[in-house]
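Action item from last meeting closed. Structure (442 res):
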């Protein structure tokens, strides 16, 4: 497709149509100090060979992260990824920057989506899963918008320690839909049930809780579910998929919508993305869930086939009644997680979850035994925990990075600032003991 640039006349007509005089007026909301008013500091023109050498020089200034032991958490985790995943998804029929979303999509893609939906629904023990979303944060925002549509209420109670990045997305995306958020208090790292109850009335569309929460603590999800349904609100859970190897799945405690970040399911850290949004719901909400679903059927000859069963967003079908702006799924990442779940199976995910739990508790015990260090919360936890530190957590993050350890992020939501430390099945006893020694020396 050729590139057709806009002419000066085109730009003038577009500016006139939206009611601004020029480009400066269009960008008036951007703070002046953020605008570039001089030329970019680019070097003199270079040949291709010189450009490659220059870029290699710049790349050489980066730290060799693969040599670091990753104890960083806060929503993305360094799990082992079987090499079979990259081998399969890099095949030419899968590896594409574009995820097909029309009904004519290939049978192979539709089958992969169907298999993904089946495994995610079973993992969460929910009735239905969609074909995936962009990431955990956008999935949660879509869940809140769905709750507003179903209940026709405009307030949401956020219970417990929700990931601050997810909270920001909630306020940005769902806030534009006219939603109001009530933040329940925390008690020792988890939601204060009495605080949640104090917000409940016939204006609350849903209770949102992350389990395990941002601090790694386990929430009282059964009680929160009961509180939500007593007041006719939906119960929305943001769950860690690996934790479901050892914890009860959301469907076991009457969850209406379950979402999560799929990155732990075979997707590399990749400096923050692309990732995968997991989205499950009960059957009664199936026609309101965002995105699309692949279904299995038979053709006129009785052969098994796959088809897009629901396309709840498609503007050409639903127009103003579309339930979401999500128009496709995170196809390649969805395939990574599908292959991961197929390779690992129930017992594999159980083993990963058990190792993660055992190693996290081993490290927490070791660190809390150091002079000046203690766990911030005395609550059951999965994978990660917050540590009170004798020196600034920010100093620890920088110092430990120089010594080959990635930790953090820092936690500043409490009177005593802390350091979040996460453990996965990849971390060895030698790495954990070395981290303890480094903390002791600092």
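Sequence:
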């Amino acid at each position: 497709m050729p590139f057709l640039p806009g002419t000066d006349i085109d730009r003038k007509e577009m500016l006139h149509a939206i009611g601004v005089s020029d480009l400066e007026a269009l960008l008036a909301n951007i703070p002046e100090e953020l605008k570039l008013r001089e030329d970019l500091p680019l070097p003199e023109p270079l040949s291709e060979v010189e450009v490659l050498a220059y870029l290699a020089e710049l790349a050489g200034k980066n730290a060799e992260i693969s040599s670091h032991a990753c104890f960083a958490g806060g929503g993305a985790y360094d799990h082992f990824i079987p090499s079979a995943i990259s081998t399969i998804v890099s095949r030419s029929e899968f590896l594409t920057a574009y995820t097909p979303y029309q009904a004519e999509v290939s049978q192979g893609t539709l089958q992969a989506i169907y298999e993904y939906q089946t495994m995610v629904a079973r993992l969460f023990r929910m009735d239905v899963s969609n074909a995936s979303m962009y990431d955990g944060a956008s999935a949660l925002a879509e869940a809140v918008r769905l709750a507003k549509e179903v209940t026709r209420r405009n307030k949401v109670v956020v219970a417990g320690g929700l990931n601050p990045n997810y909270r920001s997305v909630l306020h940005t995306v769902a806030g534009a839909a006219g939603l109001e958020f009530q933040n329940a208090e925390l008690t020792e790292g988890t939601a204060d049930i009495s605080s949640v109850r104090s917000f409940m009335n016939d204006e609350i569309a849903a209770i949102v809780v992350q389990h395990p929460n941002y601090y790694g603590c386990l929430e009282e999800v059964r009680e929160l579910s009961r509180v939500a349904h007593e007041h006719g609100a939906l119960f929305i859970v943001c769950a860690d998929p690996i934790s479901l190897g050892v914890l009860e799945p959301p469907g076991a405690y009457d969850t209406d919508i379950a979402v999560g970040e799929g990155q732990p399911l075979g997707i590399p850290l990749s400096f923050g993305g692309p990732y995968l949004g997991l989205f499950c719901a009960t059957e009664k909400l199936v026609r309101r869930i965002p995105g699309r679903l692949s279904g299995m059927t038979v053709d006129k000859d009785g052969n098994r086939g796959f088809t897009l069963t629901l396309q709840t967003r498609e503007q050409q079908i639903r127009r103003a009644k579309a339930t979401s702006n999500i128009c496709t799924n995170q196809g390649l990442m969805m395939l990574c997680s599908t292959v991961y779940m197929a390779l690992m199976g129930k017992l594999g995910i159980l083993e990963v979850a058990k190792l993660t739990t055992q190693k996290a508790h081993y490290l927490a015990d070791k660190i809390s035994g150091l002079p000046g260090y203690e766990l911030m919360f005395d609550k059951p936890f999965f994978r990660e925990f917050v540590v009170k530190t004798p020196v600034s957590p920010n100093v620890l993050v920088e110092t430990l990075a120089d010594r080959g350890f990635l930790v953090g992020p820092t936690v500043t939501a409490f009177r005593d600032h802390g350091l979040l430390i996460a453990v996965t099945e990849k971390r060895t006893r030698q790495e954990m003991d070395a981290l303890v020694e480094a903390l002791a020396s600092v």
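Note appended to the action item: The domain at 65-81+345-441 is CATH 3.90.1150.10 (Aspartate Aminotransferase, domain 1).
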